[in-house]
């Protein structure tokens, strides 16, 4: 069924691709819906390469009419905009820049952008680059423009897609035979794109998990291992934010945490732990679906622009938030309560962190990676109680629940509606109780409202008598002095 190179040697894949046990298998895939795909792309001052990415998405899709791009663009007003650069590929220029003076440039948006192919299938959230707070914050914004698409993919803004990538990705997902499957791996370098063939492709596969400088496990990028000649997607203990493909209910049950800003690298394992404990599994695909440009931004922009030293305090807070639910933090007062306040941004209840440690061969709390024994080729699928909803949090009864995610465009939910209905039910029940026993907020010894009003009017009258009519007007004073002089 294939083999895996763990960075040191080739190992034959002995189990089935899914790594299923004999006693229980994953939840089978649900019936097909409309097959639509939502591709989320965060872009930080990367307009030219972002435009190439979007062109690659539509031109290489088997059915581009079913593809929607969700773009989060973080730019300076003078930067090359992703969509305007995309339209230039097709001879359409709809953004013009006019210099008013040395420090002022006027942007003029002209008609015609609708002539760009598939322009109406691109949803955009534009953010000033000075407000950028890292990839987590940007990706969290994509749920604002996520609609009712069936499949969700996320990539970086400098990615190339193979021909018929949409059909290939869906087929890979179905072959995992798991409704909660995520097809993901660190993408191959774009330099290898010209030599790609489906029959001989070697797919990158992350094997090593190390404890990073943040004390949170991290993966290597580019990947330290690879898989070859796989017959079906191979169960993995690693996930890459640079390429991930799944059903969109993943974005309902494990949404990006917007409160983890200025973190780069460590956020991947943190999110992996969240969706693994909620019943999701990652699989390495049998072939390369996307390729990544690992070169520098041609315009010279990089991570140093949004991550500056003065933001280290916010980054530390974000890391502490991740360490809390990963069990890395020590001596945290009321840790269970703090974890409960995370809500959906914390761990799930289908699997435990101890099971994750055993599965990946690591010890998160002890800050130990799996360098000694990666077991990268043959992983056994970890069963869980399917009666537990992926929305169910490990810690309940929050005292100060963090703001939970909202979905502006998504109206047809797979799991999220369970939580919404529960909240609505609680609200209706609460309203009924209020009708039966209304609550009057009044201090037991507080004076009546009428008495307070009378005292207020009395005070106003006294103030007017003292300050407004004191001594009369200047004209009256002059008149009185004249009469006194005449009498004398």
Structure description:
The strands form five sheets. An eight-stranded mixed beta sheet has the order 7-4-3-8-17-10-18-16. It has a four-stranded antiparallel beta sheet with strand order 2-1-15-12, with no helix packed on it. A three-stranded mixed beta sheet has the order 9-19-11. It has helices spanning 47-60, 82-88, 135-140, 165-175, 249-253, 266-277, 312-326, 335-340, 353-360, 416-436, 449-468, 474-487, and strands at residues 3-5, 10-12, 37-44, 67-75, 95-101, 104-109, 122-128, 151-155, 159-161, 181-184, 188-189, 202-205, 209-211, 217-219, 225-228, 234-236, 243-247, 281-284, 290-292. The chain is 28% helix and 18% strand. The chain is globular. It is α/β, with parallel strands linked by helices. Strand 1 (3-5) and strand 2 (10-12) form a beta hairpin. The chain starts with a strand and ends with a helix.
